[in-house]
Design goal:
The complex is a heterodimer of chains A (111) and B (114).
Chain A: E1 4-7, E2 10-14, E3 19-25, E4 33-38, E5 45-50, E6 56-59, E7 62-67, E8 72-77, E9 86-92, E10 100-101, E11 105-110
Parallel strand pairs in A: 2-11
Antiparallel strand pairs in A: 1-3, 3-8, 4-5, 4-9, 6-7, 7-8, 9-10, 9-11
Chain B: E1 5-7, E2 10-13, E3 19-24, E4 31-38, E5 42-50, E6 53-56, E7 65-71, E8 74-79, E9 88-95, E10 104-105, E11 109-113
Parallel strand pairs in B: 2-11
Antiparallel strand pairs in B: 1-3, 3-8, 4-5, 4-9, 5-6, 7-8, 9-10, 9-11
C-alpha cells in the first residue's frame, strides 16, 4: 500500500537548472512532510520539511510547495549543482514518528 | 556526536544462516527505527521502538524477522533463517521522539544472502 506517490523516478538537469520532484499523498491525517536526501552508500538525511499550515518553505536553494486541498507537495531545487546529484525521498507522517516514504527520485545534475 | 552507528556495514551470508544486525542510536534519543531499502520496494519501516518498547512491528515481513532493544543504547535486528530475498540495505534510525523530530539514519548494513 503506497500512501505517498513520488514522481518522476529519475531526472537529469543541467547545472544551474531547476529540479522539480512531486509527491501526492492519500492520508488526510498526515501533518508533517519532510524531504530526505540520500547519497550513494549513505543513509537518508533530512533536507527540509513542511507542515500543512504553510504553503511554501524555502531554505537556501531548496523550496517545498504544499497544496493541502490537492494533497500534493513538491520539492524545487533552484540553481542545481553537481553536488546535488542524489536520490531524494518525500515522506509523510501524522501523529507520531512513523514516516511513510515515497519511492524516491534519482537526480543527476550534469556539469 | 557520532550519529547512529550500525554494524556490520556489509555482510554476505548463505541462505539459512542467522543474521544479526546491530545498532547504537544517538545518545538521548527515545525512538529507534529499523528500515529496509530495496530497489523494488524502496524504504520500508520494519519496526520502531519508543523508550525501548516496540510500538509498531507491522512492517516486519514474517516470523523470521525479530528485533530487540534491551536498553536505550542498543538494538538488534535478527533474521533466522535468512533467504536470498532478504538481501537489502537495512537502516537503523533514531529521533528524540516527538512527531516532528528529525529522524537520523545510520549508514546502513548491506546484506547479501546467497
Amino acid at each position: 500500500q503506497q500512501q505517498v506517490k513520488q514522481s518522476p523516478q529519475s531526472l537529469i538537469v543541467q547545472k544551474g537548472g531547476i529540479s522539480i520532484i512531486n509527491c501526492a499523498y492519500e492520508n488526510t491525517a498526515f501533518d508533517y512532510f519532510p524531504w530526505y536526501q540520500q547519497f550513494p552508500g549513505k543513509g537518508p538525511a533530512l533536507l527540509i520539511a513542511i507542515r500543512p499550515d504553510v504553503s511554501e518553505k524555502k531554505e537556501g536553494r531548496f523550496t517545498i510547495s504544499f497544496n493541502k486541498s490537492a494533497k500534493q507537495f513538491s520539492l524545487h531545487i533552484m540553481d542545481s549543482q553537481p553536488g546535488d546529484s542524489a536520490t531524494y525521498f518525500c515522506a509523510a507522517t501524522g501523529g507520531g514518528n512513523k514516516l511513510t516514504f515515497g519511492g524516491g527520485t534519482r537526480v543527476l545534475v550534469k556539469p | 556526536d557520532a550519529g547512529v552507528i550500525q554494524s556490520p556495514r556489509h555482510e554476505v551470508t548463505e541462505m539459512g544462516q542467522e543474521v544479526t544486525l546491530r545498532c547504537k542510536p544517538i545518545s538521548g534519543h527515545n525512538s529507534l527505527f529499523w528500515y529496509r531499502q530495496t530497489m523494488m520496494r524502496g524504504l520500508e519501516l520494519l519496526i520502531y521502538f519508543n523508550n525501548n518498547v516496540p510500538i509498531d512491528d507491522s512492517g516486519m515481513p514474517e516470523d523470521r524477522f525479530s528485533a530487540k532493544m534491551p536498553n536505550a543504547s542498543f538494538s538488534t535486528l535478527k533474521i533466522q533463517p535468512s533467504e536470498p530475498r532478504d538481501s537489502a540495505v537495512y537502516f537503523c534510525a533514531s529521533s528524540l521522539g516527538s512527531g516532528s523530530d528529525t529522524i537520523y539514519f545510520g549508514e546502513g548494513s548491506w546484506l547479501t544472502v546467497v
